[in-house]
């Protein structure tokens, strides 16, 4: 087959379920279905509780709602290809659909990182200037922060589909994950991917890398402020309000760093390990964030318990 013909024959990609064990894919259907259901129920509960509970109409909980919406959107970005592979045994995905999914996965990943930065700023203001907390973080400012976070994600991810579409694909069209990622697709190209690699590195450094530094700096300032509080009980109370956010940051960045390190330096590891880490990176935060906030935040926990007790009494 000549080069020109082979460069134009990839109208689709083949996604990978469990590497080397396609017959085991159906076994993953129900655990994945359970995780997606838990994501929708957990984040939906957070949104519903904040909406109906007047005492939760504060900046912290508005940012939490934005995080919940982002988590649901990120999960829904992977849902079509996951269902296609594990429920319907149909691993093929059209080229344009793959690029679209790629855009949304990377986009919502950048949005989530930006939301975590916003929540760090929220905690800093709440602890540094509690009396003016609500007057500083007004509804208008929160809305503007949300729009800036979304606009940044769209701007930095927007070139990615065009960078992929310009590449000729004349090698295997089998991707190594159950969904489409920029770095996974570009390795199949039969032309130089230096521009793609450089742009991807710049985006990661200027978004997730910079966001991590800002969050770290925010907590340095928060810790400095807390240590200046005279009462030990008040210091513990202030730090306790940050625990949920710290857990959310760790749930997002640790799997991301782990997946990145394995992708870069773990080529000798089993493909199953790569698949496992890649899925954890996208599935774990949306599932666990609502649980963390429900357990650590007294107001949310109390309201959820009231709802369940009400239903129990009605039955």
TrEMBL record:
One Pfam family matching this protein: 7tm_4
Membrane topology (UniProt): Multi-pass membrane protein
Domain of life assignment: Eukaryota
InterPro entries on file: GPCR_Rhodpsn (IPR000276), GPCR_Rhodpsn_7TM (IPR017452), Olfact_rcpt (IPR000725), OR51/52/56-like (IPR050402)
Localization of this protein: Cell membrane; Membrane
Ranges annotated as spanning the membrane: 27-49, 61-87, 99-121, 141-164, 198-222, 243-266, 272-293
GO cellular component, one term: membrane
Keyword Cell membrane attributed: yes
Keyword annotations of the record: Cell membrane, G-protein coupled receptor, Membrane, Olfaction, Receptor, Sensory transduction, Transducer, Transmembrane, Transmembrane helix
Database matches in CDD domains: 7tmA_OR51-like
One GO-annotated biological process of the protein: cellular response to lipid
GO MF term (any one): G protein-coupled receptor activity
Keyword Repeat in record: no
Occurrences of domain G-protein coupled receptors family 1 profile (ranges): 42-293
PROSITE patterns: G_PROTEIN_RECEP_F1_1 (PS00237), G_PROTEIN_RECEP_F1_2 (PS50262)
Recorded family membership: Belongs to the G-protein coupled receptor 1 family.
Protein name (record): Olfactory receptor
Encoding gene per record: Or51h1
